[in-house]
Amino acid sequence: MSEQRFQSYEEFWPYYVAMHSKSATRWIHLAGTLTGLAVTTYGALRRRPRLLLGLPLIGYGTAWPAHFLIEGNNPATFGHPTWSLRGDAEMIRMMLAGRDDELSEIAAKWLIEHPEDAPRR
């Protein structure tokens, strides 16, 4: 299924998780997002406008290379930026709650049902 054909976030979610099928990719996302959030928060509190770019620059700057180098796919952000941001937040919440194995199961199920979305490697 092409990512352009999703009609709702609920349809998109398992695809999003599948594009993060490797635990290393998810943990890099978590580290980049939380680091970027910390830098942005610090910038807001200290009134340092340049640091407000921390979240997008550090977050995407760590996440996108993980897709190319670890996952072997393109970031889902390219097709659905808003849903991808929501998916990233949901994925990180699950990881922080100790549910990383559940994400692996969601990804594996999607990739079995949609082999065309499997990594190119």
Describe this structure in words.
The chain is mainly α. It has one domain (10-117). 67% of the residues lie in helices and 0% in strands. It has five helices and no strands. It has helices at 9-18, 23-45, 54-71, 81-96, 100-113. Helix 1 (9-18) crosses helix 4 (81-96) and helix 1 crosses helix 5 (100-113). The radius of gyration is 15 Å and the shape is elongated. The two termini are 19 Å apart. The relative contact order is 0.20. The model has no long low-confidence stretch (mean pLDDT 92).
Topology:
Elements: H1 9-18, H2 23-45, H3 54-71, H4 81-96, H5 100-113
Helix pairs in contact: 1-4, 1-5, 2-3, 2-4
What is the N-to-C succession of helices and strands?
Answer: HHHHH
Number of domains: 1
From the spread of the alpha carbons, the general shape counts as elongated
Q: How many whole angstroms does the radius of gyration measure? A: 15 Å
Structural class label? mainly alpha
- What separation lies between the terminal Cα atoms? 19 Å
Largest beta-sheet details: none
Q: Low-confidence spans: pLDDT under 50, at least 5 residues? A: none
